[in-house]
Specification:
The complex is a heterodimer of chains A (257) and B (306). Chain A folds into two domains: 92 residues, Translation factors (Elongation Factor Tu (Ef-tu), domain 3, Beta Barrel), CATH 2.40.30.10; 110 residues, 3-Layer(aba) Sandwich (Rossmann fold). By secondary structure, chain A is α/β, with parallel strands linked by helices. Helix content of chain A is 20%, strand content 36%. In chain A, β1 and β2 form a beta hairpin. Chain B has a single domain, classed as TIM Barrel (Alpha-Beta Barrel). Helix content of chain B is 32%, strand content 20%. Chain B has ten helices and 16 strands. Classes of the chains: A alpha/beta (257), B alpha/beta (306). The interface between A and B is medium-sized, with 27 and 35 residues. The complex binds flavin-adenine dinucleotide, flavin mononucleotide and FE2/S2 (inorganic) cluster. FE2/S2 (inorganic) cluster binds next to loops of chain A.
Chain lengths: 257, 306
């Protein structure tokens, strides 16, 4: 696997979030929606790689985008990279979302930076009808609205305070939409409480769903077993590993704590 | 051919390795994942994920925290059990020409005895007794941190072990040489050190420990100076071979451990950052030897000029 790729461009999305385009014919050719890349961010103290979901893949141009929120030392260092810089990336890694042709009507539910992996899913999913429900805290946090609008048939946005779109949580939007429409599968990514609520809603309606999980990682490929998450197994539970068994899991299998 | 002049082979405890680089236990799984990156036959050996008699689920997440130049882990010996290892993993590993070292843990002396009896009949090249895991509450570290504990386990296991017996030591003791000498006296064929240093990380914002298990084991470049010092001390104190580890990233790091007295090394954490770390270390050592006019690894071992 070639690890050295090149930074194409960096565009701010808002105060603390940016979109980075990376030139890599290999990753662009192989990357599937929901998979992630493990990035060496540089900087003095960022020793481990940082995982980021594939947000958009441009196969014809041999590039892909990741959306990054600046959280700590690694993402801070990443934000200081410039066009043309070499960048050390392992990927694509992990198991992505299912792309089933029998799922004719799908909905994606994203919360905050959890929206990133859902964009490429909308772009690649064969469904005839695609609904996107995105939730943010406040208007300033709303990102990629136009990008999502271009890739789905209906887009609804909620903010906690009602400063943009509908007021309230995106999970309430989901409840409302599932009551109105027939949906074959729901894809969810966001903060844990939101995912938990969304999965419960889908279960209540008997609609299969998938969630994309986050856990702290070491190797990123399934060798070190640090990225454990609890899943149901044969009526009991076990630890699965987010980097290899996921990051996407069926919503029914995950045990949220 | 330049390469022909460099001899990378080492012999430890009746085990012949094509080069002194061994993948450290717990960082390399059972080799499957890294086989997608390089040919496992390029390694001197592979110490597989720490095994126990029965499958273990391990500790609750988060299981890793980043520290300056290192990591803390609290995996807690998640593994499928020794029988699943023998059935499912050995056939895969045997496709490669590399030594298989089974890393074994137990809660009681009897469990260590049973593990070693089972592994003695399995197709592995050596057994590494893990008497040093800081992430499990039972047995393991308790035995490894006292002369009496280590003497008890190693002498009883020795009688049953038909493979080269490597005893892995914890750095979480006052005098590691004393423990190493006890392992030697009880019949160990080699010692490996260091396992991880007990540490912890706290999130000041949430006022909570970062690790689900509260404490964890420190590894990576941060521990290298301590590991070097311990390898140096232990190799002066015992006559059996020493396998050195702790923070090795490059061929030069490895040369430092050999000079300090190690006969071979293990590499773990560095591979999380660079999946080619193990093979690059082999190449790096070869380059170092070429540049410094050293023809065989044995010339380096213990060659420190003090
Ligand atoms: C599969 C997966 C996909 C992700 N996709 C995205 C994405 O598309 N966009 C985005 O902005 N973020 C994403 N994240 C979260 C992102 O990896 C973290 O925000 C980032 O690692 C923080 O690094 P830092 O150095 O800025 O923070 P620090 O807090 O300084 O990081 C310290 C350590 O903790 C780890 N860490 C901290 N927060 C997280 C977290 N939430 N998840 C996993 N590890 C963490 C870091 O990797 C690092 O090892 C994803 C995480 C996972 C597991
Ligand atoms: C994630 C992780 C899991 C580990 N699991 C084991 C184990 O199962 N058995 C064992 O003897 N040592 C285990 N270790 C310790 C390593 O084998 C090694 O002693 C230590 O990490 C120091 O080397 P390094 O700095 O090159 O990683 C583990 C280390 C890490 C980082
Ligand atoms: S990060 Fe190593 S197993 Fe998932």
């Amino acid at each position: 696997m070639n690890l050295i790729h090149r930074v194409g461009s960096i565009k701010p999305l808002n105060e603390d979030t940016f979109l980075m385009t990376i030139e890599s014919a290999e990753i662009a050719a192989a990357g599937l929606p929901g998979q992630f890349v493990n990035v060496r961010c540089g900087g003095p103290d960022a020793y481990l790689r940082r995982p980021f979901s594939l947000c958009r893949v441009h196969r014809d141009q041999g590039t892909f985008d990741i959306g990054v929120q600046i959280r700590g030392r690694g993402t801070q260092a990443l934000s200081l990279m410039r066009e043309g810089d070499p960048i050390d990336i392992m990927g694509p890694l992990g198991r992505g979302f299912s792309l089933k042709s029998e799922d004719k009507r799908i909905a994606v539910v994203g919360g905050g930076i959890g929206v990133f992996p859902l964009l490429q899913l909308l772009r690649e999913h064969p469904a005839a009808e695609k609904l996107a429900l995105l939730g943010f805290r406040i208007r300033d946090q709303v990102i990629m609205e136009k990008d999502f609008r271009d890739e789905c048939h209906e887009l609804c946005i909620s903010t906690d305070d009602g400063s943009w779109g509908v007021a309230g949580f995106v999970t309430s939007l989901l409840e409302k939409k599932l009551a109105e429409k027939k949906i074959d599968r729901v894809f969810i990514c966001g903060p844990v409480p939101m995912m938990k609520r969304a999965v419960e809603t889908c279960k209540g309606k008997n609609i299969p769903c998938e969630v994309s999980l986050e856990e702290r990682m070491g190797c990123g490929i399934g060798a070190c077993l640090v990225c454990a998450c609890k899943v149901k197994l044969d009526g009991c539970w076990d630890y699965a590993h987010v980097c290899k068994d996921g990051p996407v899991f069926s919503g029914e299998s995950v045990i949220f704590e | 051919m330049m390469e022909n002049r460099i001899d990378l082979t080492v012999n430890i405890a009746g085990l012949s390795l094509k080069n002194p680089v061994i993948a450290a236990s717990g960082t390399f799984g059972f080799g499957r994942e890294y086989s997608a990156f390089f040919n496992l036959s390029r390694l001197g050996g592979i110490a597989v994920k720490g095994l126990t008699l029965k499958p273990r689920k391990g500790n609750p997440p988060p299981r890793i925290a980043e520290t300056p130049a290192g990591i803390l882990n609290s995996v807690g010996l998640q593994n499928p059990g020794v029988h699943a290892f023998i059935r499912d993993e050995i056939p895969f590993l045997r496709r490669y020409e590399t030594a298989i070292i089974a890393n074994a843990s137990g809660n009681t002396v009897e469990e260590y005895e049973e593990m070693v009896s089972i592994l003695s009949e399995a197709d592995v090249d050596a057994v590494e007794l893990n008497l040093s895991c800081p992430n499990v509450k039972e047995g393991c570290l308790v035995f490894g941190s006292s002369v009496s504990g280590i003497t008890q386990v190693v002498s009883r296991v020795r009688k049953l072990c038909k493979k080269p017996l490597i005893v892995k030591l914890t750095p979480n003791v006052t005098d590691i040489s004393e423990i190493a000498c006890a392992a030697e006296a009880a019949g160990a064929d080699a010692v490996s050190l260091i396992n991880t240093l007990l540490g912890m990380a706290i999130d000041a914002k949430t006022r909570r420990p970062v690790l689900g298990n509260v404490t964890g084991g420190l590894s990576g470049p941060a521990v290298k100076p301590i590991a070097l010092r311990m390898v140096y001390e232990v190799s002066k104190a015992v006559k059996i071979p020493v396998i050195g580890m702790g923070g090795i990233t490059t061929g030069t790091d490895m040369a430092e451990f050999l000079l300090a007295g190690a006969s071979a090394v293990m590499i773990g954490t560095a591979g999380f950052v660079n999946p080619y770390a193990w093979v690059e270390a082999v190449d790096g050592l070869e380059r170092y030897m070429l540049e410094s006019g050293v023809k065989s690894v044995s010339e380096l071992i213990g060659g420190l000029m003090v």
